[in-house]
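Obj: model holo form, ligand = zinc ion.
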Amino acid sequence: MTVKHTPTGIVHKGTKGGTTGCRINTKIRSKHWVASTEKVTCDKYGCRNEK
Ligand SMILES: [Zn+2]
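Output (holo structure tokens):
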């Protein structure tokens, strides 16, 4: 499951209403976030790097 930040077009790991892999809270400016099935494009630790 991924979530897209529409102003930047960056896709993060996570779900809308939760926290992304890189620790962004999607409840803040929630209108900027949409649920996505696209591949992660964020390169920050936690989104790109699998454990
Ligand atoms: Zn991210």
